Amino acid sequence: MAKLEVHHLNNSRSQRVLWLLEELDLPYEIRPYQRDTKTMLAPPELRKVHPLGKSPVISDGDITVAESGAIIEYLVDKAGASLRPRAGTAEQRRYTYWMHFAEGSAMPPLVMKLVFDRLRSAPMPFFAKPIARGIADRVIASFIAPNIERHLQFMEHELGGRPWFTGDAFTAADVQMSFPLETSAARGGLDARFPKLTDWLARIHARPAYRRALDKGGPYAYAS
Cα-Cα-Cα-Cα dihedral of 7, 9, 13, 19, to 10°? Predict the structure, then answer.
C-alpha cells in the first residue's frame, strides 16, 4: 500500500500538514519543493500536481487534495475522526469556526501587511519611493494594523477560558490556527499584551509531534 505523499514547499503552510500527520501517526512521504529565491514563489513543478501550483497539496493514491483546511479534514477522516470533537457539541461548533477563521479572517490582513511592507522596499524610480511608502504606511496604519490587532485581541480573549481553541482538548483546529499565530509572532505582532497566545504557541512548539515534523520538513521561517 502506497504511503500518502506531501508535496512540501519550504516555508509554507504545508509544515502544519506534516505536523498533523505526526499527531495522527499516519505514514507519509515528503516530496520537497523550494521557493524561487528571488520571487519567493513556488516552482512550476507543483502545477503538475495541482493546476494552481501551490502548497500544501497531498497525494493519496489517485486522490489529490489541496487547501489546508480540506487537507486537514481529509486526514482527520482518514485517521478515524481523531483530533476532532464529537458532532453536535459546543466543542465541535468551535472547531468548525476556528478551522474557517484561520484562513478566512486571520490570514488576509497578515498577507496584506506582507504585500505593503514589500511595496515600501520595492525597486522603483527615486521620485516614486516617497509616494509609494506614504501610501503603504497609510494603508497599514489605518486599515491593516487595526484589523490584525482586533483579531489578536479576540483570540487572546477566547483562550482566556480554555487551554485550546475548541476547549480542554487539543484538536486539528489548533493545527490550522498555528500558521496565522506563528506568522503574527514572527512579524512582531505578539507581545506582552497577549500572554495566552504566547503560552499557546509555546505549548504547541513543545509537542513531540510538532518537533518531529520540523525535523522532517526542514527550517521553517513562517513565510506566506
Answer: 60
- pLDDT band of 223, cuts 50, 70, 90: very low
Tell me the backbone φ, ψ of residue 5, rounded to 5 degrees. -115, 130
Cell of 191: 507581545
d(CA 150, CA 155): 9
Q: Count of H helices and E strands in the chain?
A: 9, 4
Question: What amino acid occupies position 170?
Answer: F
SS (H, E, C) 154-217: HHHHHCCCCCCCCCCCCCHHHHHHHHHHHHHHHCCCCCCCCHHHHHHHHHHHCCHHHHHHHHHH
pLDDT band, very low/low/confident/very high, at 125 (cuts 50, 70, 90): confident
Closest CA to 176 of 50, 24, 14: 14
**Cβ pair 213, 15 in contact under 8 A:** yes
pLDDT confidence band for 183 (50 / 70 / 90): very high
**Helix, strand or coil, per DSSP, at residue 123:** coil
Q: What backbone phi and psi angles, to 5 degrees, belong to 28?
A: -160, 165
User: Which of helix, strand or coil describes residue 9?
Assistant: strand
3-state SS assignment for residue 35: coil
All three cell numbers of 183, joined, read 506568522
Angle at 155 (CA atoms; ends 70, 85), nearest 5 degrees: 45
